[in-house]
Design a protein that fits this description.
By secondary structure, the chain is mostly beta strands. Helix content is about 0%, strand content about 50%. Strands 2, 4, 5, 6, 9, 10 and 11 form a 7-stranded mixed sheet that branches. A 4-stranded antiparallel sheet has the order 1-3-8-7, with no helix packed on it. A hairpin with a 4-residue loop joins strand 9 and strand 10. It is globular, with a radius of gyration of 13 Å. It starts with a strand and ends with a strand. The model has no long low-confidence stretch (mean pLDDT about 95).
Length: about 110
Amino acid sequence: VRLVESGGGWVQPGGSLTLSCQASGFDLSNYVTQWFRQAPGREREMVTYALDSGRTSFYNNAVKGRFTASRDDSANTMYLQMTRLQPGDTATYYCYTSYMGTYGRGIQVTVSS
């Protein structure tokens, strides 16, 4: 059972990034999926929450209207499309599934000029 994030990096304010989270060892489509993030010195916070149907039912107010969570069942992969990024979005981002309470290892997103 594994979740592996990719797609992070550095971007200037106003830019965009898309994070991917590839699942292996189980079928992602049967479980709740979430994105979390943790900035230095701060607690981990939930960014998105999606039901096993794939419908995202929650977006953190700080990202609403800028981030979009999705899932490709054929690829067993979940995504976080991030637009109009701000320095306050700088954090380590983690994907999560309710299958065995599994987190990915995390991936760094840095927004700065």
